[in-house]
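ARCHIVE RECORD
Type: protein–small molecule complex
Small molecule: xanthosine-5'-monophosphate
Source of inputs: curated submission
Record status: active
Notes field left blank by submitter.
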Amino acid sequence: MILIIDFGSQYNQLIARRVREHRVFCQIEPPTINMAAIRKLNPDGIILSGGPSSIYDKKSPRIHKAIFDLGIPVLGICYGFHYMADTLGGTVKRSKKREYGFADMRIRSHDHLFADIDDETTCWMSHGDTIKKLPRGFKITASTPSTRIAAAAHIKKKIFGVQFHPEVAHTPQGKKIIKRFLFDICKCKRLWTMKNFAIQAEERIRETVGDNRVILGLSGGVDSSVTALLIHRAIGNHLTCIFVDNGLLRLNEKEKIEKTMKRHLAINIRFVSAKRRFLSALAGVTDPEKKRKIIGKVFMDVFEGEAKKIKKAAFLAQGTLYPDIIESRSAFGGPTSVIKSHHNVGGLPKKMKLKLVEPLQYLFKDEVRKLGKTLGLSDELVWRQPFPGPGLAIRIIGEITSRRLAILRQADDLLLQEIKAAGFYKKLWQSFAVLLPIKSVGVMGDKRTYENILAIRAVTSTDAMTADWAKLPHKFLASVSNRIINEVNGVNRVVYDISSKPPSTIEWE
Ligand code: XMP
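STRUCTURE (tokenized, with ligand):
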């Protein structure tokens, strides 16, 4: 495995992705990790990420310098390189101006890291400080017109540093450089496959859980389904899933989930119908945050009530993914302002005195999909677009009523049918309809109508942190709009949302 030390770079998850693309496992840890923990992980190589700090900042993150004496190859990127140079006796110069963008790079030494890199290539720079003097034993291996020490190496100690970012697509030969580091320098083996992961994860689950019972909140999304499948393989009927029907699901969703789950997973699932409880708690509420809080609370109560019926339950399983874990303990993770109160089961373990099992906590979303496929989940489930916990409640702007839910359900179903038929479903991160609280005038069969406006939202994204509105073809949008207005009673106008995130968000509430 490769250990990645997180100095706070916006690219550190990308470094992890690059390593895993080569089927090598890696783990991102904060610089506060101690030497004993590093030795225990026994990495084949260490990558020091970039970061926003200057090595001269009082609070610049640092890791124990003994990592350079472990005999393990190290690759420092940008700030990681500065930290390495500074710690080992070189000089880093603080610059007033950042160098940002493409730079032409000349390779000055083709050994090791740059063995198969062209003499002249392009790299992506994003830094303020630069290294002026290298520590003893290092030599310059690449330069750019404005950065003499664009890369350096201590060949004997297998310590390498690069000022540029090999992990970004803007460094065209970056992938090759990372590949060299992994296989020629660290001697890693390509063992990170989802099949191996599943076997190890099952063993870990059995060890952790022992003879106890596990409860899992099933949403029908890919993360909770894969979690359920994995745990079921490990402990069979000691797992019980709870599916709460909150009345805010899409058309026939509960039935579809029930069918697929039963087909795929011979698992204990308890379906709890709590429609009325949710809808009566939401009656008359229009404020988005209030809606979210009510849904979160009612969910907790319903879930807890059901879970109490399960004897000897000691664990709660969750489909938490790696990006959530990394973000929640980032070196720079200070309090951020709450944009939306996300509905999840986060408060439950404490309230119910349960321990957590999170078997997907080292995986990225696309790896979860691969794992799902490996475990035999259908394409339909594996490629399901994310659906938020609060469901259609945050897609009906204003008050939620049964009538408005019915309108949105029908329009949303029609939209998804068309998206799937046109082959866009897998390419989009999400595509859905939103019902607006304003009416507009229309004309249908010579008659005046005064009906609802429906918005279509479709975005592309890799992680939902940022998203682009999808440039769906006009012809497609025209035919969807036509169908919705003609077939959905209560809608006489359709608009397309052309906002990206940021500054907008994906969901409207
Ligand atoms: P926003 O609207 O914040 O959404 O851009 C980002 C992603 O998160 C999903 N989302 C939620 N998922 N519980 C969830 O499980 C929630 O409360 C929730 N709110 C938003 C949203 O669909 C998008 O994929």
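CURATOR ANNOTATION: The chain has three domains: 2-185, 194-382, 395-496.
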